[in-house]
User: Fold this.
Amino acid sequence: MKIANTNKGLLKIISIGMLGFTVTTQAEDLGLIQVESSTIADRFENKRSEPSNIGIISGEQVDDAHAQNIQQLLQSIPGVTTEVQSGDSLKIHIRGIENQVFMGEKPGVAVVIDGVPVFERTGKVNIDLDNIESIKVIKGGASYLFGDDALSGAVIITTKRGAKYKGYKVAAEVGSFGYNKELARAGFANEDASGHVQITHRETDGYYDDSDSESDYINGKLQYYINDSSDITLGFESANRLKNSHGTVDGVTAAANDPKSTDPIYNDYANNYDVDLQKIFTTYSTDIGANDNLMVNLYQFTDETDYNSSPRSADESLYNYFNDYDQQQRGLKTEYRSGGDKFAWMAAADLRDNSYDNKVTYLDCADFPWNPGCAVGSLSEDNNTDEQVQAVYGEVKFQTTQDLTLTANGRYDQIELDYTDNLDATDNGTKDFNVSSWRLGANYALQDDMDLYGNLSTGFRAPTVTQLFVGSNTPSRITAANPDLEEETATNMEIGLRTSTKWGDTPVEVDLAIFQIEREDYIQASAGQYTTGTDSSYENIGDIQNRGLELSLLGTPNNRFNWEVNYTLLHAKYTDYSLFNLQTEPVAGVCPPGSTPVLPPFGPPIPSNCLTAYNNTDNEVPRTPRHHLNVYLNNKLGDNWLITTEIDYSSSYYADEINQEKISGHTVVNLLANYARKMGTYNWSFFARIDNLLDEDYYNTARGFSDSNEDGVYDAEDLSLVVNQGISFITGVEVNF
Assistant:
């Protein structure tokens, strides 16, 4: 969309960034309406015509927060919760969507970095926190913009860009558990171009035993202004990350006695990650006429990850497998949009050519009686997946009256999966998914400062090649593949109210949304999470309903003090989940009536356990707290000091499907102090942050999915737990000149 009456200098300041196009941030200045974008979503900070509940965190807020992981940023957005393993290993939940067994499975939330939905392996969101221009969260089904894996929404991260990064910046931080960070950035801007290069180093010993990590980033952008209406952006990022994700213990006794997981018997299944990331892209944007814009983006993201898995024994240095995983995401996106007084539209194409190569080598064979041909150094797995995506999508926005704006989105994805097993050709397979996604929304202006909005939107997630062609084979259970699996789907219904009002003399911004998500055909092993020692298969096993309320309040009594309250009420339950078997031990070698005996794969034909049918319908979905409250208090003292107090409360939740083990709620208080002052030509900033100020004792994550101590009883001693590290601090200084 063309910016009306803009000059060349203003065009350069409002840069398209990595995957953007030039737009206006306030449509009412032009009398134009504008459409949503799958690329530069943060430009739409004016929510007046937005029919969905969204949350936005600016780059300034990100920088001022001095966060060590993205969880510390996202927890202020209603409807968003995160599970943290250790460091930056986490899983993002939106509106309670996530009930997978392990951290590393597809989360149902699209993580989008500069317009590209990034496949994040093993639950680790690989993003440089010092290179974030903005974060936008779209809640509800978001496949109408991003396609696969946007069941409940998308977290859209836009990286730094533009002429405002002209000059130099250096920064340094230190903190608890050996944390330190160094950063340097240099940028320029003139009549024809702007750009910057940034280098960041972070490292920490970590709270948990064997949880140290280190990361080095170098990234930058160069934007060249071809003329008053066209520009081209070149960008890159190169990163190396070495990280140990250790931190899990089995059971509440171990969590109490060994919260740092120093006992080597509690080794995590996967550890010792070496991650190399490369991103390169070019984006061309041009305004055509008064109101039209064309954007074309070509990109390649590369992820080369090595790690060890399956600890062999109590010796924490010995693992059974060495994993060598490489992925490349290549794509072309183009969007054409047009805006007007009453009508706006966008037509777009999204073409992806992705490849995933996986090799697993035996490090040790002592614990593999089921594989007598094993040899140290030989291949256990050697496979590759080619994924082709051809998608078209678009949006139409129509202002039917002065007060009512209607929005319609549509997207059609054709996904082609081609899996090749270089060790066992019987596993080879191909599968196509042709999926339509859509959103219908409306925004009605009840008053000048009050809008009623609502939408119906959809999301989907395609099965993985493991679920389709390979299956899972472990010492405790074999889960067969199922090439007939259908994609999981979700339908989001939402209605909300946005208004600006006054409570006494305090101006208050209010955003209230009520939602319900109907999720169908979610995929899981038919034997359920707890069962071991029996064969099962991946199935479209059942349905889930998530419903709740999201409330955001921002009060500004004066220019020295403001407060923010964000609250989520959530009830997530299984509405159909009957294909489940609960394991018990046989009594004197005999299973009780009504149960099914399971014979072990090795040894004499005596039942190793007994399976009893169990119906999870109407049970609560694990790890979905009913209440989440986040409060910010910002107090400016004088001209230089800003003191921020954050209070974050999460209520109790179940750790397991059968709703047997409930985890207590917790309240955490965080404190942040920023001091900024200009000294000569230098702008200095000092800060100190204390997390968990009151040293609250709680778990970062709690999962129940197996009889880990093999006593035939499922209880709190079987839970996989990560204990929060308790009180911690970080302090630092930065200089801009």
Remarks:
- Residues 1-33, 39-45 have pLDDT under 50 and may be disordered.
- The CA atoms of residues 546 and 572 lie 4 Å apart.
